[in-house]
What we know:
Elements: H1 8-11, H2 13-28, H3 32-46, E1 55-60, H4 66-74, E2 78-84, H5 87-95, E3 103-106, E4 118-124, H6 132-145, E5 146-159, E6 165-169, E7 178-184, H7 185-195, E8 197-204, E9 223-226, E10 232-236, E11 239-240, E12 243-250
Parallel strand pairs: 1-2, 1-4, 2-3, 4-5, 5-7
Antiparallel strand pairs: 5-12, 6-7, 8-12, 9-10, 10-11
The structure holds S-adenosylmethionine (SAM).
S-adenosylmethionine binds near residues 62 and 66.
Amino acid sequence: MEAFSYQDYVSDAAFIDRYNSYQTKYSKQMRESDRIIIELVREIQSKHDFNSGPMRLLDIGCSTGNLLLHLKSCLPQLTLTGADLAESSLQACRANQELEGVEFKIMDLLNLPAGADYNIVSVNAVLYMMDDAQFANGLRSIAGSLKPGGTLIAFDFFHPYSQDLHINEISTSHPDGLRLRFRPMDMVRPILSEAGFKNAVFRPFTLPFDLPVSGEAADLITYTVPTLEGKKLPFRGTLFQPWCHLVAVREG
Ligand SMILES: C[S@@+](CC[C@H](N)C(=O)[O-])C[C@H]1O[C@@H](n2cnc3c(N)ncnc32)[C@H](O)[C@@H]1O
């Protein structure tokens, strides 16, 4: 069988069920990476002229809507849309009263509505599952759905080294393998320009607190390893995860 890829999220109902219950934890307890996204959105919002219209944000690959839930409570002036390929995740979002007022739609990151004029598109932990063609198409598709001058905020695996890593992680939850891609920032920059983005800023992510090793070895729960400089690097099993926030502005 082919390694698990982003398409399998839609077809593997049992996997989605397990993933959605894992997400439940983060509806109460905001992830540090989401907190940073919210601060980035807050900064953009502070420059938005609400007399010229609402500020519209699309979270593509929203799963059960945790980021949207926190955005809604921290920044209530935003007009929020959540989209995913997995209908069962969207159903869970629509049934969640805390997400009332947020619009949910089936959308494919690779084929977003052109000219939708979003001020911000966030894509949180989705692009690393995509191959090169999908990655470039996905960025073009996001650019097309943003207003000129609108902002892409991504949280993904990007790093400063000249290593383009293709990883096939075989584990208890993915016995057929999960394809992960750790992309060098220097490889991503020209792809962003070609897609119509400028002013790309990469902000490598480390945790501000220690996460102890927990669970059984097979559970692969994220823990941190301290560096000599006092940074706390996120590991899962033997793997260092080069999580990184990326902000880029659509030309125009
Ligand atoms: C690892 S989860 C991340 C969920 C959420 N953004 C978060 O940070 O917790 C990836 C999500 O992206 C969705 N997804 C994968 N490929 C997609 C695509 N082409 N278009 C829209 N959603 C996609 C999956 O269904 C899944 O909900």
